[in-house]
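User: Hi! Is it possible to get a structure for several chains at once, not just one? Here's what I have:
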Amino acid sequence: MVAVTSPGTSARSLPLILARELASNLATPMFLLDAAGMLVYFNDAAALLLGKTFAEVGEISSLEFGESLKVSTLDDEPLRRRDTPSGIAFFEHRPAHLRVLATTYDGVRRAYEATSYPLLGATGEMHGVVAVFWPDEPGDGAG
Amino acid sequence: MRARVWGCRGSVAAPGPDTVRYGGNTSCVEVQLASGHTIVLDAGTGMRPLGVAMADEMPVGLHVMLTHLHMDHLQGLGFFRPLFVPDMEIDVWGPASPVQHLADRIAMYLSPPLFPVHLDDLPSKLTFHDAPEEAVTIGSATVRAAKVTHQGPTVGYRIEEAGRVLVYVPDHEPTPGGSLRDVPAEWMSGNDIAHGADVLLHDAQYRDHEYGTHVGWGHSSIAQTMDFANKAGVERVMLFHHDPYHTDDDLEELVKEARARWLGAEADVDLAYEGMTIELDDRGTRILRG
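Assistant: Yes, the chains can be modeled jointly so their relative placement is included. Here is the combined structure:
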């Protein structure tokens, strides 16, 4: 009587759409990864931080994005993708927070607080990751 | 397929002399498929007269597909005669919840003290399912649901049969407080199911000047409705979920605003009304004035 057929067309899921809606209304720098690990959006506040708009960066893999920012620990030890807050949120489906060093598109390397959490849907399915960044206060010895 | 509107009022039933042309019953649309199956979209108060009409001839397969569980979409369920037919098999679909099964949520209404009969005591055989976010086949149609922005877990439905597409999104505020004008279509809530539809039944609760005091209530302004329909590339729009405070005359002003925002022909935007019948088949789409 009822048979499952082919899945629907690909489209942004509602949790991701709602996260983008929230981000676009905030002055907090916010980044969105989708369930495949692609960077699919960052808001204007994040663009100010990075030195490029989302339209300029475009959709890229979070791996490529992380490499372009040269994300490391405060001791300048390179961080594997899965050890960054976004990586932990993406691979382990749990929130994470870390102070990191990163180099933005204007070439400035500084310390940031980074918090990420997974977007898990009503039935536990993964929709993506929200990552929030904000710069450490200057003079905190981080960089 | 043939869709008939049995209720298109939003929020609460609004019978009376000011609503006779478009009707006062809340959301309920019957969709008859070529295979003989029937899909009932939502269980508002329009479901009561639908159940009466069905009593003479029950469909070969009956599926009730709920967009969400607000009372105006559920209140008719307890008065739907097929529920009281012994051993009648009915599939009930609704949005998934991480905390409570669909049957348990519906039983919050269909049980004392809110209703005299408990859901478990009905003589029909009900089977409950989460709304299908991957396409399922029901008779001669495929049906798919997608979550949309409203208050609480809510879905819309896309029904495809013989190359024709009917989409039902009665409760939807696609961008609370904002405009869809600069939002890419792929980032619009509901676009996944609505894109390219032959007919879209969509929330049109507020005129633009009313929306400012209702931001976040889960319903669309006319600007949002029509921006959504234009961007989704639908062929025809039926304005649905009429505000209970809107009289027939108010609605006829509202549809003028909608047509002014529509990029297609004026005749392709209309107000849903009780008795409206929409036929979709290989000859196209026809509105039969009921």
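Chain A is about 25% helix and 30% strand. Confidence is low (pLDDT under 50) at residues 1-9, 139-143 of chain A.

User: Great, thank you!
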